[in-house]
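From the shared-data thread, chain only:
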Amino acid sequence: MTAATGLLLVLLTLVRRVAYSLMPRGMSSVQSS
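Structure, as tokens:
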């Protein structure tokens, strides 16, 4: 796993965490983990 891939995964996780915290029901259709 390259540094770029790791950063992308971390950013994606952080963004999804914030999105779930702000609007949990709005992100209900984006559950793919």
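Helices lie at 3-22.
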